Structure formats: structure tokens, C-alpha cells
Amino acid sequence: MANLTSTSGFLLMGFSDDRKLQILHALLFLVTYLLALIGNLLIITITTLDYRLHSPMYYFLKHLSLLDLCFISVTVPQSIANSLMNNGYISLGQCILQVFFFIALASSEVAILTVMSYDRYVAICQPLKYETIMDPHACRHAVIAVWIAGGLSGLVHTAVNFSLSLCGERVIHQFFCDVPQMLKLACSSEFINEIAVAAFTTSTAFICLISIVLSYVRIFSAVLRIPSAEGRTKVFSTCLPHLFVVTFFLSAAGFEFLRPPSNSQSAMDLMFSIFYTVIPPTLNPIVYSLRNEAMKAALRKVLSKEEFSQRKMYLKALCKL
């Protein structure tokens, strides 16, 4: 591992100093990144091209995939490059951008998952009012609010985090500029501002979690009253993947951000960081498509030779205009 030669940057320790393990880590992360890239791009493409999927649920799913695509791109490519070059150095500017986009996209993801749970609640518990409540105008405003809220959260966290004076060595025991790890480098007397911001963010995330839980309590209460077993199965196949994604993402992130700080870094810390930075963006396309017949049908249609030929002829006709 290269020495840190500039006081304006940081040294990311990553997973190992062993060269073979670094190469293995880079290959595993590359495969995972490509899977996430392909899966999320497919969902974005399918929900955009197939008019049958132009509904609020798939509109929000498309933005979740876009968030996942950006979210995993913030940390994984940098980590792959560091492992291949055997150099964990990251400049101050890169670290600032990484913290901003990481916090902004993570906050936006929590917000969009909350909106999606509300969408399912309205669709199942108030079906007669669904088109009125979740009209295209309201959906667009909800998505805009999600992106703005995430951006503001990232901006505040970044501004406060990088205004702190550092008293320790500029070494981060993580494969990216992780906020909890960076706080260990700050002088203890200046923790108060970051603690206040972290408390506000945690409270907001907790409110989102409570909203999601309440939505699903009402959803499952309504589902259990459905007389048809086929109807219950259809609703569960739509809601359970979303609940799995929410539980997995928030539990892993909550463990990392809410646990007491420690001066030592363990394999458990790295594992949990992978659980909320790498695995959710990779699993989400699988979770949302495998149990969704509409998504599978749309995927078969988009990938079919007939559909490909039609779109190719359409593009040729446009080029001639």
C-alpha cells in the first residue's frame, strides 16, 4: 500500500494489504458492479419503453433504480481502481464529492422507499381514490421532493463534516470515505455540530421507517381480509419484495451509523458497509423483477427479436427525417 504523501488527502485502508486479495476484491467488486449496472439499466429501460408499466408504482421503481445505479457508482469504481493500482490514496476533493453523493443518494433512497410504501398503501387500502391521490402531477412532485431532500441532506452533512479539524492520522479504515470512520479523525471538541446533524438525519430516517411500518401494518391487515387466496398472493408478491429491500437497507445502515464508535476496525465493520453500499443496488433489480409477472413479460418483450427489429426500423426512419 502506498504511503500517504499529501496532507490534503486521505488513505483508504480497504480490505487487505495482500496483493492477491486486493486483485480478488477488485474482481468481485467489478462483477458485482456490472450486475448492478445491467440490472438497474434494464429496469430503467423497461419501465420507460413499455407503456403498460407507466403507472406510479413503476415510475417510483424507475427512480429507485436510477438512485441505485448512482449510489453504487459513488464507491465501488473508486475502490476497484485503488485495489488494482495498490494505492488507497484519495484526494480531499474526491472525498468531499464521495461523501456528498453518498449521503445525498442514501437519503434519497430512504425517501423513495417511503414514497413507494405509501403508494402501495393507497393502492391496496384506498383503491377507489388511488388515481386521484397518485396522479402524475403528484408523483412528479414526490420524486422532485425526494431528490431535493437528498441533495440538501448531502450538502449539510458534507459542509459540517469537512469543517471539523482533524486531530488524528488521515487514515480511513474503510474502502470509501465513510462518515462514521471519518469522525474518528476529528477533534473531540468539535463533535457537537456533526452530532446535531447526525441526530437530525437519524430522526428523519426513523420517521420514514415508522411511516413504512405503519403503511405495511395497514396493508397486511387489508390483505388478510381478502377472501381470494389468489388475490392475497398477488398483493404479497408486490409488497414483500419492497419490504425486504427496506428492511435489509435500513437495518444494515442503522447498525453502521448508530453503533458506538470504536477505535479498531474489524471484518464485521467492512461486511456491514458492503451490506448497505453494494448489495442493495445489486439485489433490487432481482428482487423487484423475479416475482413480478408484469416486469418479466416486459423484459421478454424488450429482449425479443421482433421488438428489437421494430425499434431498429423506427430508429432508421428517424435518421432519414
From TrEMBL:
The keyword Cell membrane applies. Belongs to the G-protein coupled receptor 1 family. This is Olfactory receptor. It is a multi-pass membrane protein. Residues 39-288 form the G-protein coupled receptors family 1 profile domain. The chain crosses the membrane at residues 23-46, 58-76, 96-118, 139-160, 195-217, 238-258, 270-290. It comes from the Eukaryota. Keywords: Cell membrane, G-protein coupled receptor, Membrane, Olfaction, Receptor, Sensory transduction, Transducer, Transmembrane, Transmembrane helix. The gene is OR14J1. Gene3D superfamilies: Rhodopsin 7-helix transmembrane proteins. PROSITE patterns: G_PROTEIN_RECEP_F1_1, G_PROTEIN_RECEP_F1_2. InterPro entries: GPCR_Rhodpsn, GPCR_Rhodpsn_7TM, Olfact_rcpt, Olfactory_GPCR. GO terms for molecular function: G protein-coupled receptor activity; odorant binding; olfactory receptor activity.
